[in-house]
Amino acid sequence: MKILALVLFILMYIVMVARQKYRPHAAMAVAALYLVTGILPVGQVISSINWNVLMMISGTMILVDYFIASGMPLLMADLIMEKSKNVMWIIILMSLFAGLISAFIDNVATVLMVAPIGMAVCRKLKINPVPMIFSIAVSSNLQGAATLVGDTTSILLGSYANMDFLDFFFMQGRPGIFFAVELGALATIPIMRFEFRHLTQETLVTERTQVKSLWPSFLLLAMISLLIGASFIPGKPEISNGIICLGLAGLALLGDRVKTGEREGVRRALRSLDTETLFLLLGLFIVIAGVTQVGLIEDLTRLIAEVGGSHLFWLYSLVVWGSVLISAFVDNIPYVATMLPVLTGLATRLGISPYILYFGLLTGATLGGNLTPIGASANITAVGLLKKEGYETGFADFMKVGVPYTLAAVLAGYLYTWFVWAG
């Protein structure tokens, strides 16, 4: 049974890497095979699925759609452009702006919001948009791990480790992973200043974007506030965060229906749900429960412990830099979902707190995706947007931006997490 589970698991990963558009199909198919073959008893299916994660992601996606449609992100970008001295600073500030948004909104949605603004600036100034768009994508991917709701991997970690919104900022009396990510973002500024030092043209904003409605912005702020408030409630239900996100999404849908008297906005928001990611996660939860059930997670834990030894520094380094290399080519959602129980087992074997390994995993897996154009969905989206505008790009074009950004950001986060959490 263990051999069969391992073979199916490996086949699933091969399909995910070779045919990315079939990732949810592969996960759901293997999940079904696990149930049919008895690798995971059917009676354990419901308990193996992390409903809190699925609810949080669904609710956040709907709120993000309304936020984008309101025009508020465009107005914020206009204000940034007004404060910029030249094109170099526009690229830097637009990248940091994308990162700020991405700390609270899905990375792909962030790229879809900010990249067209960058494209318009480049078109107006008659400059190549490739470096700016790639910088926006890399920054969006970088900042996703900063908060509980910034990225699917953060939501996975938060739910798995029972971490609340505030735990990403301060936890157990120490600064959390938020500061590791922000240090990484700051480390990329000198890289951008050097990369774009020749872009000294001045720019002007002739007209600010008009915001259609403040309601979506209010709901997003309410979501953040309620998630923070819920973090202070002891013994709350496991799906509390999911209920908050879905409840506010319901208010957004209801408000739209009442205000317009039409269903088109509601249909658009519901169509914005990334069902591929939701089904991917659904299948992965079942598959991971299956490999845990037959003991594969325990075997992998033992193998990594033997390679990394009992020395925490080497083990931590292996987790961070190994995750960087793996996430450069493998989607970080299934990778993080698989590794979380492995790291828990490692921490138990070594008799240490698992959080330094959790944070190392998220640092390497999230930032490592920036090494290549296929390492993160935000990067793939950016490449697609450029292609639509007639700009064909390859691995080398992306890596000119991605490699220095990634090395600077990961190194900053790697050192920060070690010095703060190793003791």
Mean pLDDT: 84
Structural domain count: 1
* Main pleated sheet: 2 strands, antiparallel
Strand percentage lies at under 5%
Number of helices: 20
What low-confidence regions span 5 or more consecutive residues with pLDDT below 50?
A: none
Instruction: Give the total of beta strands.
Output: 2
Rg (C-alpha, Å): 21 Å
Estimated helix fraction: over 70%
Order of secondary-structure elements: HHHHHHHHHEEHHHHHHHHHHH
Q: Any idea what the shape is?
A: globular
Distance between the termini: 41 Å
Spatial strand arrangement across the major sheet: 1-2
SSE class: mainly alpha
Pfam family, one: CitMHS
Keywords: Cell membrane, Membrane, Transmembrane, Transmembrane helix, Transport
Domain Citrate transporter-like: 14-362
Family: Belongs to the CitM (TC 2.A.11) transporter family.
